[in-house]
Each structure stands twice: as structure tokens, then as C-alpha cells.
Specification:
Strand content: 15-25%
Shape: globular
Radius of gyration: 20 Å
Order of helices and strands: EEEEHHEHEHHEEHEHEHEHHHEHH
């Protein structure tokens, strides 16, 4: 997808890569690399769950990690305990976990029956997974359930890793993994081209359900956009979290690039369908068909592959820009 000499000035002189068209951001190595040597869990491990409950874990032979964006499963595999994982949520899509049964068939809500059928020794969730009555039902059945507070930022990844590692009795492996992830993420941030700050709007699209949102401050997409040296158009327009997409709002945001998740793009009929949404064609990104998509289970995961994800996103966004 690389091209040169096709950048055209966008808002405030920012290159908008006119004529370069859409790009799919792909992580070079899509799988999770575990720390080595594999750790030996020190059990029992007693931790304070994110919901305020004290939980003791004395068996990690059958781990069930489920969270909104799939990062907990990434962390468990990164800690060298992937062989103990018995199931996954729909957001866990990396190759090593693809064979595992899904316990969130309806999206991100747990099915108590599906979980109990797998006979887990510990369940790890974040505060985006529920419903609460299912978590209470699992605990009443004697299953340790540890909730980890999720923070959709790159800076929040180390604390997430440490919380999971503590619950599984492998804090030393957690520190090794934190060091590696921080190093990879810092390297990816340093590699972002200097002096270029394209305005990038993240759109969350579910065309089959009629859901069209734009991300702003705290949506998670802003962290990824800023990590590659871009300006989050939603945040710059004063938006927070996710807001309904309006033609006026998107035109005022004036993105040079539109960032979407791959399944969301497909749900509106690809780039051809996207530019037909109200306001899209009237932006520099829409006029130039400057759309970057990335796999749903990758872009906003904030797990142990974060450095590689930032690198892949930067390559896709800047692939068409003139290096001079």
C-alpha cells in the first residue's frame, strides 16, 4: 500500500494523501509472544477484585479470561499461561486463542451456563463485562471471579498486566511482560513521523444495527491516534467518549483520515458505503477516500501487542505521505 509523491495539503497544511485511497493496517506478527521461561504460579494468590471483593485463587489450571476488547486473554497468554486457557470472548481473536470456545455468543455478556460448562478454576473479567448477576451466580457456584479495572489507554496497560499477573500468582512474569510491552510501545511512539499531525476521526460503525458513532476523548481511539502523532478529530471538536455521528459534527471535525474497525467498515458496504453516510464525502478524508481500517480484535485491545499495533497503525496512516 506504500506510495510516494501523492500527498496534498489538507487542513492547516497537513498532508492528506489525496488519491492514495484506503489502507488496511495489519500487525506483522498477529500472535502473542509469551515470556520465557514460563513461570510457576505461587498459589494461593489473594487479591482485591475491581468490584471491591477479596478473591483467593488457588488453582490456575483452567483460566477463563473475558473482557470487552480481548486484552485479558492477551495478557494471560503473554504471561506464559496460554495453555491453561479454556475459553474466550468474541473480542479475543489472535491466532493462538482462535480454537477456544466462545462464552459470549451475544456480544460481551457472559452466559453463566456456558461458563460453568467449561468448569473454570478462575474467571478473569474487566468492568465492561457482565451482567453483574452472572458474576454473582458464578461466585455462588464456587468459581473465583476477579474483575480488573479497564483503562482504554496505552499508559494503563502496565497496571492491567500487573493486576492479572497478581491474580494468577505470577507477579515476576508480570514485571517482565510490563518491561517488554513498555519498551515496544515507546519504540513505536518514537517511530511516528515528526512534524506531521493529520486529523484522524475514529468512527464506530455497526450498519446492520444502525449504530454510527464518533470517538472523542477517552474513547480509546484517541490514545492510539495520539500515539502515532496524529490529532484526534473528535477530541479536538470537544467530544468525549462516543457520540452519535452527525453530518455537521463530522464536517466540522474535518478529518484528513477516517479510522474504522474492519468489521464496521464491512457493515456499511465498505468504503463505497462509508462515503455515502451523511457528512463523510464533505470531509477531506471522504473526498480523498482516505480510510484506514484495522481488525476489531486488534485496534482497541490495549494488551501485550500494543507496541506492534501502534507500529501497524502508523504505517497505514503515513504510507501514502511524501517523506520529504
Amino acid at each position: 500500500m506504500a506510495a510516494t509523491g501523492c500527498a496534498a495539503p489538507g487542513r492547516s497544511g497537513t498532508p492528506s494523501a489525496a488519491g492514495c485511497g484506503p489502507v488496511t493496517a495489519t500487525v506483522d506478527d498477529a500472535d502473542v509472544d509469551p515470556v520465557r521461561p514460563a513461570p510457576t504460579p505461587a498459589l494461593p494468590a489473594t487479591v482485591r477484585s475491581g468490584d471491591g471483593t477479596t478473591v483467593t485463587v488457588d488453582d490456575v489450571s483452567r483460566i477463563l479470561p473475558v473482557n470487552l476488547h480481548g486484552s485479558i486473554a492477551e495478557i494471560v497468554f503473554g504471561l506464559g499461561l496460554g495453555g491453561n486457557v479454556i475459553g474466550r470472548g468474541t473480542s479475543t481473536t489472535f491466532p493462538a486463542a482462535a480454537h477456544l470456545p466462545v462464552v459470549t455468543p451475544g456480544g460481551h455478556d457472559l452466559s453463566a451456563e456456558a461458563v460453568l460448562d467449561l468448569d473454570p478454576s478462575v474467571v478473569l473479567v474487566d468492568d465492561g463485562v457482565g451482567p453483574p448477576e452472572v458474576l454473582r451466580q458464578l461466585r455462588a457456584a464456587g468459581v473465583p471471579v476477579v474483575q480488573v479495572r479497564a483503562e482504554p489507554t496505552l499508559d494503563g496497560v502496565p497496571a492491567h498486566i500487573r493486576a492479572v499477573a497478581a491474580a494468577l500468582g505470577v507477579p515476576g512474569a508480570g514485571e517482565r511482560l510490563v518491561t517488554r510491552v513498555q519498551s515496544e510501545t515507546a519504540e513505536a511512539r518514537r517511530a511516528a513521523p515528526a512534524g506531521r499531525a493529520p486529523r484522524i476521526a475514529f468512527l464506530y460503525l455497526r450498519g446492520t444495527a444502525g449504530v454510527y458513532l464518533i470517538g472523542g476523548r477517552g474513547a480509546g481511539s484517541d490514545a492510539m491516534i495520539e500515539a502515532i502523532g496524529g490529532v484526534d478529530a473528535g477530541s479536538a471538536a470537544g467530544l468525549s467518549r462516543f457520540r452519535p455521528l452527525t453530518s455537521e459534527g463530522l464536517i466540522n471535525a474535518a478529518p484528513d483520515v477516517i479510522l474504522v474497525m474492519s468489521a464496521g467498515l464491512a457493515s456499511v458496504g465498505g468504503v463505497d458505503g462509508l462515503v455515502k453516510l451523511p457528512g463523510v464525502a464533505q470531509t477531506p478524508a471522504g473526498a480523498n477516500r482516505r480510510v484506514v481500517d484495522m481488525a476489531d480484535g486488534t485496534l482497541l485491545t490495549f494488551g501485550v501487542r500494543s507496541g506492534r499495533v501502534v507500529q501497524a497503525l502508523a504505517r497505514a496512516v503515513y504510507s501514502c505521505e511524501d517523506p520529504s
